C-alpha cells in the first residue's frame, strides 16, 4: 500500500515571535523580518519548523495504483490534526509514501510538529525503507524527475501543465494563509485534495513512462483519476 498525501500549512506566528524575540512587532513587519532572518532560500519561504498544519489529505492506493480510500482533516487544533494523520498511517504496518517535496517539507514538518505536541510517530516513518534517500517506498516526485538533484526541481503545477492535467482552480499555496484568516478551512482541504489527486496522476504517468504499468491499466487509472479531479474542481468548497 502507498499513501499519496499533501499537507497545507500557515506560518506559526507565535513561534516566529518567540524565535525572533519580537513579542509586540506588528505581523507584517514580523513576517518581513522572518523572511530575512529565518528563511534560507531565495523565495523567502519559511523552513518547516516555523509552519503549523491546518489541513491534510491522504489517498491510500494499492501496489498496482488502484485507489482505495481518501482521508482528510482541516481545523485550528493542530494537535488533533496530527493525531488523526498518525492514526491514518497506523492502519497499515508496512506502507510507502508518495508526495511532491515531502522529503523537503511535509515529512520534516510532521516531525517537528509532532515533537512539539508530544505525539510519537509511527515507527514505519523511521525505517530504512522510508529514510533511505533512493528508496522506492518513499517516492518524492521532485527527486524522481530531477534525478535526485542532478537537474532542477520541477513544480507540481508545471508537471501538470506538461502532461495536460487541468490544474489548480482553488488557489495557489501562498493563498492558504489568507484563506485561513477568512475562515475558509474547508476550502483549504478542498485545495489540498486537488493537489493529492494531481500528485497521484503524475505518479501514474511516471510509472507508465518507467514501463511499470501496461497501457490499458494505466489508461484506466488515469481516466478515473482525471474524472475525479474534474469532479473536485467543479465542487464548491
Automatic annotation (TrEMBL):
Pfam family of the protein (one): DNA_pol_B_exo2
Membrane spanning residue stretches: none
Record's signal peptide: none
Predicted 3'-5' exonuclease PolB-like domain mapped to chain residues: 44-228
GO molecular-function term, one example from the UniProt record: nucleic acid binding
Domain of life the protein comes from: Bacteria
Protein name: Predicted 3'-5' exonuclease PolB-like domain-containing protein
Amino acid at each position: 500500500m502507498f499513501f499519496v498525501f499533501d499537507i497545507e500549512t500557515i506560518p506559526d506566528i507565535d513561534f516566529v515571535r518567540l524565535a525572533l524575540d519580537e513579542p509586540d512587532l506588528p505581523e507584517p513587519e514580523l513576517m518581513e523580518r522572518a523572511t530575512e532572518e529565518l528563511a534560507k532560500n531565495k523565495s523567502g519561504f519559511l523552513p518547516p519548523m516555523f509552519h503549523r498544519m491546518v489541513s491534510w489529505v491522504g489517498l491510500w492506493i494499492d501496489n498496482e495504483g488502484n485507489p482505495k480510500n481518501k482521508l482528510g482533516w482541516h481545523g485550528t487544533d493542530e494537535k488533533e490534526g496530527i493525531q488523526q494523520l498518525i492514526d491514518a498511517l497506523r492502519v497499515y504496518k508496512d506502507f510507502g509514501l508518495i508526495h511532491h517535496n515531502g522529503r523537503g517539507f511535509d515529512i520534516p514538518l510532521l516531525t517537528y510538529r509532532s515533537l512539539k505536541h508530544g505525539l510519537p510517530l509511527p515507527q514505519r516513518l523511521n525505517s530504512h525503507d522510508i529514510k533511505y534517500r533512493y528508496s522506492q517506498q518513499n517516492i518524492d516526485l521532485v527527486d524522481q524527475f530531477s534525478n535526485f538533484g542532478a537537474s532542477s526541481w520541477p513544480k507540481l503545477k508545471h508537471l501538470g501543465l506538461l502532461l495536460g492535467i487541468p490544474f489548480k482552480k482553488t488557489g495557489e499555496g501562498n493563498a492558504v494563509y489568507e484563506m485561513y484568516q477568512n475562515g475558509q478551512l474547508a476550502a483549504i482541504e478542498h485545495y489540498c485534495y486537488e493537489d493529492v489527486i494531481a500528485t497521484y496522476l503524475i505518479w501514474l504517468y511516471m510509472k507508465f513512462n518507467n514501463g511499470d504499468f501496461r497501457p490499458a491499466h494505466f489508461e484506466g487509472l488515469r481516466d478515473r483519476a482525471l474524472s475525479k479531479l474534474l469532479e473536485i474542481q467543479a465542487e464548491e468548497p
